[in-house]
Amino acid sequence: MRWFNPQSALAAVYVMILSLPTSEAITYSPIKPPSYPLAVRSPYLSAWIPGNSVASLSSSRAQFWAGNDLIWSVTARVDGVAYNLFGVKVPLSGTKSGTVTEATYTSTHSTFTVQAGSRTFTLDFFSPISPKNYLRQSLPFSYLTVTVAAGDSSSVQIYSDLDHSWVGQASDVSWSYSTKTTTGVFQIQGADASTYSENSNGQALWGSAVYATRPAGGGSLSTASGPSASVRQSFISNGTLSGTHAEWTANGVVGFAHDLGTTAKEVAVTFAVGHVREESINFLGEAQTGYYRATYADTVDAVSHFLDDYSDASEESVTFDALVQSTGISSYGSNYSDILALSTRQVYGGIEITIPNESLDTGTTRAFIKEISSDGNINTVDVIFATFPIFYILSPGYLKLLLDPILQYSGSDGYTKEYAVHEIGASYPNATGHPEDGEEMPIEESGNIIILTYAYQLATGKTDLATTYASQLSQYAQYLYKNGLYPTAQLSLNDALGELANQTNLAVKAAIGLATYGALTNQANYTTAGKSFAEKIWSDHLGTDAAGTRFLIQYGITPWFLVYNHYPDLLFGLDIFPEEAYNATAAFYPTVRQKAGVPLDGAIGWGQTNWQSFVAATVTGSARELLIKDLHAYVANGLNSAPFSDRYWVQDSGQYVAGDSYSFRARPTLGSHFALAALGGANTWDY
């Protein structure tokens, strides 16, 4: 795999060359993905660029995860000639377009190499992932570093700006400029926006967009805000900005210009982009705020620290990226490592780590995850289940941070049902309780809570979660025992099926949930009950065809179904289902593969990468090879532009063709792609 500096020591494993009409070529490494993460740190700081837009990077705009444009531009002057490098959709007279020669991604960086006149520039979009360092991980900022490579003795200036599109409003916006020592900080905020409100694209309407930088490489820094044409023209003409900060205007930008002087050396400048909300989550009426605010309560202080931390964060990213790559390769080759690297930022970019806003007490740390693009729920239990393999091997503490607010709520007077809750709020960031008419998955979520609690305990060796919520976990286990073998009509993880009775996959979840509870509490009778369920489902053919070659959607009713709920059986070594059950599925699934992959069941034309990944971990041989190969082919096929959608068409269907993404985008559920890697052990990464 070809990596950019400072990771150039890593070996090249895959390079894709795309010939452009100009006969120039772009090297995509390891592949050209549907969309590159640019600044992906929270559900509200989530900027991307479609892979197919990279060839025209100079005029292609960043996009919020929902697909709406974000104004964010970079222009460089080389010996007085201005070259648009990124995001300038309408170039001003006299400017030229830089030529992209290389695009690469790792788990934390997306990097583009652009030729501009006699000099080569690298744009490194770096979103740190540091899940064991809650301070670093909770800072709501991302880096953009623009590096001019060593070359001739040119005069070089670098300009960048952004606008109000980052706060989701087209009017009633204001901005301000402040400094801290040499750091310049712009803040853009909407006026009169309700706290905890979003626009139709899922952008936060309260809080502030932040853009900051400081002089570097011995150069000087100038600033301006005002109408975009005049601010950009000032840089194009002079290489500097006026230092005047006009009030907000609808076509305005806030901009920085770095004058690096005449230099033949490599020089880099770094910007920090972010979105800050002091009151970030409403948890049962108590405002939560970012964990970082216990140390840096002031936004200017926080972003100044973030820039100070660049060297350490970058050093950590080198190790982290190498671990993702090596884990993927050792688990199942370079195709698998490509998938993991593209998935990681999307997972952690859907989560926020918080503390109470009033006390700033880090002893009450929580985490909240958004069900991005599907329905916007907060701390959906099955979304956490779909994500948990990455936490199991990388940051198991997140399981407690995510489960604690769920169990705290469901143990209160606000929730009185005997089974586990589906989520703790219909609309992120409002964790105000499960609505009366909200979606419910009694068996699915009851089993999930038990499984996730045991995953945390097994990975950390800590029993605090199971001890604190022992009565609730016991209640859920009792519910599974009474209702799990013959489920009433209810939803499963595949809620597209609707409410069906006797769903095989739900019964499998009950069997695994009971056995897991037995392991969690050292009560062998629950393990025995789980094995009894599994024997009836598989050996007695309650949930299979008569010959025992496949699992069915419902008892005795075709079609077949992709059974993924027995993944924890293998992960935890429970030995609930016999080996022949796994051998049979490994033999069967390749026979029902469609043009672009294995569908979720025999009655539909689409598949879901979450559950394909769980199944890939439960099968071996050609079946595993097929599932990994299909997932890699889907993400590299060039048909899609949405941030890694976990649902796609596996066969042609009306206006869609096999390989097209289907509905979802940017969801954090891609932690499921680590299911195969997680079989190597819990909490094994040292970085």
Automatic annotation (TrEMBL):
Transmembrane segments: none annotated. It holds the Pfam family DUF5127. Residues 333-676 form the Glutaminase A central domain. Keywords: Signal. Residues 108-326 form the Glutaminase A N-terminal domain. InterPro entries: Glutaminase_GtaA (IPR052743), GtaA_central (IPR032514), GtaA_N (IPR033433). Coiled coil: none annotated. Residues 1-25 form the signal peptide. The keyword Signal applies. This is Glutaminase. It comes from Penicillium arizonense.
